[in-house]
Design a protein that fits this description.
Strand order of the largest sheet: 1-5-3-4-2
Shape: elongated
Helix content: 40-55%
Distance between the termini: 75 Å
Number of strands: 7
Amino acid sequence: MISFQYLHLDIDTIDTHSFAFSYPYGPSRELTESIRRAGVLTPLLVLGENDTYRLFDGHRRLQAARETSLPQVPVAILATKPPLELFSLWIESQRAHRLLNPFEIAALVQDGPAVFRIPREQFLSLLAKETQRLSPSLLPSLPKILSLPERLKREAVQRNYGAPFLVKIVKTFPSELLAEISQILETISLSENQMDQLLSWLDEIAKRDRLTPSKVVKRDPLPFILKHPKMPTAKKRDAFLKAVLMRRFPQRAKFDTAIREIRQKIETTGNLRLLPPPELAGDRFELRVAFRDVNELETSLRRIAAFHKEIDSLTKLI
C-alpha cells in the first residue's frame, strides 16, 4: 500500500526535468481553461529528496497552472522507492489516463534508464512488456523519431501514426523532405497512408528530376492549391495529392486530356458511357450501353459505329 503526504507547494520549488516524458509538452486548451476556472483538482505526484521536490506525474497540469499564474499547486509527496517499483508506479500513473504515444516511448528509451536508474537492457525489456504495442527489436531505434519536425510530430499524435511507420520515414527520407512535409501540414491534414504516399512520391520526383524537395513543392500548381482561399480542406488535400501524382507520372496529364476529349464525343449520345481505369495500374476500359428496348440498342450500336474514328484514336492512345 502506498501512502502519500499531501500539501501545497510553490510552483517555483518543483523540479520538472527528471520525468519530462510527456508529448505534446504543452497542456490542452481545455485543461488550461479548467484550471483557470477551478484550479488544480488532482494533486501532482512528486518525489521528495532532501530539500528538492521532483515532479513525477502531472507535467501538463503544472504548465497549465503556470500559464494561469497560480502561485501554488496541490501535491502528493511520494517516498523514495527502489528503481523497479518507481518505474512500475510511473507506468501505472500514465496508464490511468491514456496510452503512451510513440514520442513518449522514444523519450523513455532515450532518457528513462538514467532517470529511473535501471540498466538499459533491463529497462528496454521492461518497457517492451509494458507498452504491449511495440516489438522489442524496434525500441532501440525509436529515439530517432524525436528529431522529426514539430508539426509532423503533432500530426502523428493527432492522426495516431504507428511507431513502425515513424521509424520507417525517419530512416528512409531526407530531413529536408520531412521539413517540407511539415510545412504542408500547416494547410492540410494527412492520414498515415496518405503521408506514406506523399513522401514516396515527392522523394521519387526529386530524385528523378534532380531537384531539392523544396523546389518540387514550389512547382505549379502545388503552391496555388495550398493557398487557395475558398477550397475546403479535404478537397484541397485530394487536389494536392492528385497534382503530385500527375507530377510523378508526367504522361498522365496528356492521357487524361485525350480521354476527356474522346469521352465528350462518345457520351453526347446520352446512353453511352466510356469508363477508363481509375489508376494507371489498369489498362482495361469499359464501354457501357444503357437501353430500354431492342430499338434503342440498335440505335446505340449505330451511334457506336458512327464514332469509328474516335474509337480508333482511343485504341491508339491505349
